[in-house]
Amino acid sequence: MEVDDLWLRLLSRSEDIADEVSRRSRHVLPVVARLFLTATFLEDALRMWLHFFEYLEYLQLQLNCSELLSVFVVIVNLIGQLLGSVLVLFRVWVNLAVLLLGGMLLLQVQLHVVPWQLQLLLRNAALLGGLLLLHVETQEQRLCNSGAEARPGVPLLVNRRPQHLMRLAGRALLACMYPASLLRFELCISAVVLNSFGVMLMAFIVLGYRTRLAALTLALLLTLWNLYSNSWWLVHGASRDLFKYNCFHTLSVVGGLLHVVVLGPGQVSLEQYKKRW
User: Fold this and answer.
1) pLDDT tens digit string along 110-158?
2) For residue 175, what are the CA distances in angstroms to 84, 110, 115, 214?
3) What is the CA radius of gyration of the chain?
4) 186 pLDDT band (50/70/90 cuts)?
5) How far is residue 22's CA from residue 29's CA, in Å, rounded to a whole number?
6) Separation of alpha carbons 87 and 98, rounded Å
7) DSSP string covering the chain
8) Helix/strand/coil (H, E, C) string of 200-248?
9) Residue 147: its pLDDT value, please?
10) Poorest-confidence range of 8-12, 206-210, 264-268?
């Protein structure tokens, strides 16, 4: 009984710290989250620019298409990722930018035959979840601005259920990153402890229970793992690009987790249901 009380007090104290961090960094955290989320798109666009002709050869072999079509596909992909990232970072037409980046992500899935690679498919699903949360954040900001501009005494009737469901869907998609990256298939004590801790955090995020604390903890854990496992600056040779891709892709998922910290659990969550009980 005393152990349970100590655990609950520790959990409550940790949650208060996470809420305090979110409150104090409310002006900085959304900017960092957007920068992290667009990291993989910016890196991919830069890599396409630096290895333009290599991409053309790859597409001609992969798709068995003409040189003109491969040039068109590479240019559309490059401009789409660069333009979408810039719009997100400067908060201009963010919803359009989310659609654009989501379309570029789905295009890359087809170009690189990702559907046959479960790990990369899960990572792309997590990245789509981050984009979905970015869309929700933009909608929430727009509703707040509309409420501030409304006339005093006049209620603002807005159906926010789609935003709450999209917030739930975004959290569920972000959960795909854990089995694709942190899950360890080893029979040892450290692997069992890490897997149990990670699964618990992902369950908290998806279900919306102590959401900010779980998202912030997992973001820190994923960042440390990323710096350790995907340190591309220490790698030389042909595998350097793969390590760099994995590093920036994971960084974008961390950006999605930071959006969870910014947004909170929403109405479709255990935290809200507990308040009703």
Assistant:
1) 776 554 577 778 888 899 999 999 999 888 877 666 554 445 554 454 5
2) 24, 22, 18, 12
3) 21
4) low
5) 8
6) 9
7) -HHHHHHHHHHHHHHHHHHHHHHHTTTTHHHHHHHHHTHHHHHHHHHHHHTHHHHHHHHHHHH---HHHHHHHHHHHHHHHHHHHHHHHTTSSHHHHHHHHHHHHHHHHHHTTGGG-HHHHHHHHHHHHHHHHHHHHHHHHHHHHHHHHSPTT-------HHHHHHHHHHHHHHTTHHHHHT-----SHHHHHHHHHHHHHHHHHHHTSSHHHHHHHHHHHHHHHHHHH--GGG--STTHHHHHHHHHHHHHHHHHHHHHHHH-S-SSSHHHHHHH-
8) HHHHHHHHCCCHHHHHHHHHHHHHHHHHHHCCHHHCCCCCHHHHHHHHH
9) 53
10) 8-12
- Single-letter amino acid, residue 210: R
